[in-house]
Amino acid sequence: MDQRSIKTVEFDKPVMPGGACSVGQAWARVPQSPSTAERAELRACIREWLIRQQAVLVAHYYVDPELQSLAEETGGCVADSLEMARFGRDHDARTLVVAGVRFMGETAKILSPEKRVLMPDLDATCSLDLGCPADQFAAFCDAHPDRTVVVYANTSAAVKARAHWMVTSSIGLDIVAALHARGEKILWAPDRHLGGYIQRKTGADMLMWQGSCLVHDEFKGVELDLLRAEHPDAKVLVHPESPESVVAQADVVGSTTQLIDAAKALDATRFIVATDLGILYKMQAAAPGKTFIAAPTAGNSATCKSCAHCPWMAMNGLANLAAVLQSGANEIFVDPAIAERARMPIDRMLDFAAQKKRNVRASGDLARDDALFRHMGAA
Ligand code: 13P
Ligand code: SF4
């Protein structure tokens, strides 16, 4: 491994069951930036190999805009993690190329075991996933057998295999509200900020794992308050992985797709955005002429933790995407026994989302819709 291309990353590593956080050490590989000529060549090569491999590109909003535009132009998708999962499952391509982080590739494979799932870099991980090891999580679940286990998508397949439900940021609130209305007590993992937001909104009884996203955890409430004073006309868009002091100042709290939709729909011309800056590419395209200001973090791009850009999402580049398409390397495999168990909580979420789309009703009503819960049972 070329040490010059390695960036060290520190993240919150919860020590459960108490939840005190120690510091975890990880790393991310920084891809080299191609020259303008190389970029054009790589884009052409990727287009050609997507066709040759009968492949489709499924990208997250935080990856390099070059990859986002290629996904759009070639019939793939750029989306939040819920829509990435749904798109990959429903698309008839033989190969899915997932430009994002590892849990997104694993979810795609679990939902489409018959497809080949490739990723530009298999080491692209997530601090929430790293901070929730499957064996420790299993012990936590074993200690609380009376609770319904709800895990965020940003976890390993083995953690999902212990869950009753998987949720993403776009639907977690609705699902927990529905479970709460049924009188269920929740065991939530791993993001303490998203869990705290859902708990405050729903009043549900939630026992929390204490993980966090190293990007969103860096947004600071005090500095945001000062920035809002400088721009009193600005609306504040916040991803719920952010701390409570930041969420409390939001005009809109939502998933990446929901924040882009809000930027488009709201009658404002200026927005302060508290999420990974990769989102600005799509936000600017969706709402041209509007101004987007990055919410303040603890620093000014000096470290991975303060640059408001996920070091692992940044591992997806044109060169490694072209290389995996040509070679077929970096295929995602999930142990079939784990995949079978992990599929149930994901299917439940997708069924719930489909049902919610059909019934434009409040979550409380959905909670009484027994069809949604018919697969409910022990994990
Ligand atoms: P979304 O589901 O909102 O896209 O979030 C995924 C993620 O990893 C945010 O940090
Ligand atoms: Fe994980 Fe945060 Fe990166 Fe999203 S932005 S993949 S939550 S580390």
From TrEMBL:
Cofactor(s) essential for the protein = [4Fe-4S] cluster
Under the cellular component aspect of Gene Ontology, which terms does the record hold? cytosol
Q: Which family does it belong to?
A: Belongs to the quinolinate synthase family. Type 1 subfamily.
Q: Does the keyword 4Fe-4S apply?
A: yes
* Catalyzed chemical reaction(s): iminosuccinate + dihydroxyacetone phosphate = quinolinate + phosphate + 2 H2O + H(+)
Pathway given in the UniProt record: Cofactor biosynthesis; NAD(+) biosynthesis; quinolinate from iminoaspartate: step 1/1
Record-listed [4Fe-4S] cluster binding positions: C126, C213, C310
Top enzyme class, one word, equals transferase
Positions annotated to bind iminosuccinate: H60, S81, Y152, A153, N154, S169, H239, P240, E241, T256
Q: Sum up the protein's function in the record's words.
A: Catalyzes the condensation of iminoaspartate with dihydroxyacetone phosphate to form quinolinate.
**Species per Swiss-Prot/TrEMBL record:** Mycetohabitans endofungorum
Q: Which Pfam families match?
A: NadA
Q: Which gene encodes it?
A: nadA
BP terms from Gene Ontology: 'de novo' NAD+ biosynthetic process from L-aspartate
InterPro entries for this protein: NadA, NadA_sf, Quinolinate_synth_A_type1
Listed name of the protein: Quinolinate synthase
Q: Where is the signal peptide?
A: none
Asked if the record carries the keyword Metal-binding, the reply is yes
Q: How is the cofactor bound?
A: Binds 1 [4Fe-4S] cluster per subunit.
PANTHER family, sorted: QUINOLINATE SYNTHASE, CHLOROPLASTIC (PTHR30573:SF0), QUINOLINATE SYNTHETASE A (PTHR30573)
